[in-house]
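Methods — Computational structure assignment.
A single polypeptide chain was analysed. Its primary sequence is given first, followed by the predicted tertiary structure written as structure tokens.
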Amino acid sequence: MRLDLFDYHLPPELVAQRPLEEREASRLLVVDCESGSMEHRAFRDLPHLVSRGDCMVFNNTRVRRARLRGIKERSGGKVELLLLRPVGNATWEALARPFRRLRAGDRIIMGSGELRAEVREKGEEGLVRVWLDTDLPLGVEEAVERVGEVPLPPYIRERLEDPERYQTVFAGRLGSSAAPTAGLHFGQATLEALRRKGVRLAYLRLDVSLDTFRPIACGEIEEHVMHRETLEVGEDVCRQVIAARREGGRIVAVGTTVVRALESAARLGELRPLKGETDLYIYPGYRFHTVDCLLTNFHLPRSSLLVMVCAFAGRELVLEAYRQAVERGYRFLSFGDACYFHYPHGWRPPRCS
């Protein structure tokens, strides 16, 4: 399919530059994928839109302070690194700028010298592999947390006064280069309301990496290749999902990263624990194994995230929802409002046979 089929007009003023004062104060566009009907609600209404016995699955990864600013040891030239993921032996994959001025062997000093990097390899599209070193007793992660900054997406130009607003309230182990933004809407009040309703809450981890930042550059969406991201789908989330399905409940994915993780763990047709990496790319024609409903933010035009949502709910319906959201002034992207695509009980998105 042509990439331009996944385009829409996004006025720049609708890109949210800062989080709302209250996490749960955002708007919620509710889309019935069977009837095509849409409701304009508040996010706090979410517990009324799910049923006892449903299972809601969250990504509890924590965002690393992965944006590092430093200077070249020899020339003093400024360098910025965005750590993406460790690849072994104190070596990390990162995005670097200015990319062209870096050479293998360049050494970079960050902070007051607490953290040092050496460029080991240059790839394409700004990617490098760097070796990190520190004298701090707890190692590289401690140094990164001391000298690094929370890596906000490039479309957010304002400074974030409280870095915790780019973390979910249930964030756990460090690992991501970006937040699983659908989870940013949840506060303890909504989580408790869901528990009282009898909704199962389950957690997995997918460390968000390069493809959050990388647009689709191919004219045909099928030609796009996803980079690998680390994930862990444990036994507990598998038990809860399987139990909910057995009892007639729906599986509600909170964010596209949860969709990728669950569908990766069910690629053989049955949901099983999975720890490792995934390069699963979901686009129209994909047959879903596990996910029944999707809570997500509004995504950039021509992005792999928008393509995935279209695979789940149908391209025409998704683009109509986005048209209405633009018309009504919804807030878009990471700090924006949310959209809930749901199938009624007994209905399913495109399924595997």
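Note: The radius of gyration is 20 Å.
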